[in-house]
Amino acid sequence: MPWIWCWARGCKRTSQGRSEAVVEHPAAVNGVVCSVPTAIAVTSADLALPPLDRQTPPAVVQPLETLEQSLAGMHALIEQHGYVVVLYPAPAAGPAATEEPAVRRLRTVRSVLESDRIALLGIDLPPLGLALLAQQLRQLSMCDFSPGVLASSARLLAHYIYAGALLGSVAGLDRVPVSMKSHAKSWVPGAQFAVLANPRPQLVRVGEEELPGPEFGTRLLVAAGQSPSDWVTASLAPAWRVQGVAAVPLPAESTRWWGTGRLAEFAAGLFDVSVLYQLVSSVRREECHWCGLELIGDRCGFCAAPLPPPSEIPSARAPAVVRALPRGAT
Question: What single string gives the DSSP state of each residue in 211-275?
Fold first, then answer.
């Protein structure tokens, strides 16, 4: 039976979800002792989904209303947690793309604090999908992953999130390719479109085609806007064979992201912490050549330095070993 060790709350969790008390296990990262989980932050309160269990820490909202409050809040997070990972929606591609004021303030905060312990991650997911990703990282923050691995795992986990929406119109949709035929059908009264933005963009008209879904067990989140979510819960959920459905409030940014208020947003993803743990721990770990933190994938989540080509990585360095703490370790 695989064991997943968790920090700060003094618990260990089995793959069946049971938790048992153990001795707290602090970890040192670049001289910073982390006895509490890495803080996971989002840029608005409506992206902070409720925790799935009592062990999962709540999400933090950054930045705050003023620069002074943001500086004080971020400093307190670093003092308490050691490292902070902030997720924010990546801006739309194109020459007119600009960063949101919240993101600019976060960059100012990081610059003023002169901190290398703040990861700012722009994720190309719809708002509800981003909220789901933040929830997954909060679950994993209780496990024995270093801050660098946790931050760089965001890109990996995003590939396993199926995020989309039921739209009454695609006339204002610019995040997913829309054909002229679909644009024309938007003017037909009662027309509805099922749109998948991640992991592969796809658009179908409801009743004519099926929207491809995940081939693994997921939990489905549904946030209704001005359109009812009946099709999502009655048709899409059974077709995707989800293992649970939960209704959540629609994020304020969703209307702008999807180009219409006539929508019901949905996102399906992994929810079992043991599966999430195995997925992340199965990836080879490397050391960032710039900041020295651990990472998975091809880019550091904190300093954004890319992983050098294999030919430039010193062969004398032993490969990173991925393993959970043994039972009984303190």
Answer: ----SS--EEEEEE-SS--HHIIIIIHHHHT-S-EEE-PPPTTHHHHHT-SSEEEEEEE---HHH
Residues of the chain with pLDDT under 70: 1-35, 94-97, 179-189, 311-330
Please tell me the number of Cα atoms within 13 Å of 274 on its side-chain side.
13
Question: Helices 147-158 and 273-281: crossing angle, nearest 10°?
Answer: 100
Q: How far apart are CA 280 and CA 153, in angstroms?
A: 7
What domains does the chain contain, in order, with CATH numbers?
Answer: 23-158+284-312 (no CATH), 162-269 (3.30.1180)
How many helices and strands in the chain, by DSSP H and E? 9, 17
- Grouping H, G, I as helix, E, B as strand and the rest as coil, residue 317 is coil
Find the helix or strand (DSSP H, E) in which 127 lies: helix 127-140
Write the single-letter amino acid at 154. Answer: A
Residues 132-172 have pLDDT tens digits of 999 999 999 999 999 999 999 999 999 999 999 999 988 88
Residue pair 172/162 in contact (Cβ under 8 Å)? The answer is no
Q: For the whole model, what pTM was predicted? A: 0.84
Closest to 138 in 3D by CA, of 155, 115, 154, 126: 154
Q: Across the strands, what pairs with 203?
A: 195
Per-residue confidence (pLDDT) for residue 182, from 0 to 100: 55
| Average pLDDT taken over every residue of the chain | 83
- CA angle, 152 as apex, 122 and 276 as ends, to 5°? 110
Q: DSSP 3-state helix, strand, coil percentages of the chain (rounded to 5)?
A: 30, 25, 50
End-to-end CA distance of the chain: 20
Q: What is the sign of the dihedral through the CA atoms of 116, 117, 121 and 127?
A: negative
Q: Bridge partners of 86? A: 41, 120
Residue 54 one-letter amino acid:
R
